[in-house]
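Input protein
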Amino acid sequence: MSYSASDIANYFVWLANEHEEYGENITNLKLQKLVYYAQGFSLAWNNKPLFADPIVAWMHGPVVINLYGKFKHLGAGAIPTPEDFSPEAIDPDTRQLLKKVYDVYGQFSAWGLRNLTHDEAPWKDTDLNAEIPLRTMHDFFTTHLTDG
C-alpha cells in the first residue's frame, strides 16, 4: 500500500495521544522527524518508500513541507488526534514498522530528534532547502540497521 505523509503522521499522533505509556504529545517539529525516520526505515527494511511526499533539508532538520504547513498554526503546541482517523487505515505491517520507529525515537524530545538528524548523513549531505534523495536515505538507514 501507498500512503501520504499525512497518513503516517496521523498514525504517530494517534499513537502518542491515545496511549499514555508513550508519554508526551507530538509537536510539529517532533512529528517531522518521526515521519522522516519512518520513511528511512521503510526504505531500509522494505526497499520502498512509505509515501511519495518529498523530504526537504530545512534548517531544523528533515521536513515534509505540506505536512509542516498543515500543523504550522499550532506552533510548538501539541497536535490533536484527527477526529476522522482510524489506525486500521494503516495496514498491519506498516503499523508494526511505525510502532518500532516510535518505540525507538518517540522517547526523544523534538529538539533531541532535531539534533540527532543533524548528525546523520541524509540531512548533513543535502543542501539546505533541497530534497533529501531517497537513495541517500536508503543507503544511510540500511547501514544504520547493520551497525546497530
